[in-house]
Specification:
This protein has 115 residues and is of the alpha+beta class. Helices cover 17% and strands 32% of the residues. It has a five-stranded mixed beta sheet, with no helix packed on it. Helix 1 crosses helix 2. The termini are far apart. The model has no long low-confidence stretch (mean pLDDT 91).
Amino acid sequence: MAPFDFKIGETGGAMVYMDVKSTSGTHDTQFHLSGAELAFAAASEEPYLIYRVSGLTDEGAWLQVSSDLRPHAQEALNVLARLPAGMTLTGMGIRPDLLTWSEPVWLSLPAPASE
């Protein structure tokens, strides 16, 4: 399983890794990063962005895009490296206020097709 959801090519050839985190709760609900996602983001040479989908309902949801997660992932791995031998962490919760976010955009879901 890949430690990101999408790899996006930008104009000029730059790449960005995108990880989608969704909740029916509010944007400020903590989200989970697996150990693999955290390690990949920390080691990546390309930006690693969180696409946060919140307030998810049958009608749609709000989307916000984070700042680059790499510096925070690197800092977290530095802290985890000090754990005693034999201890590992398989993931962690992230508070959204740790990152900077784009303005929210409403995403409408299509109405169900009538039969």
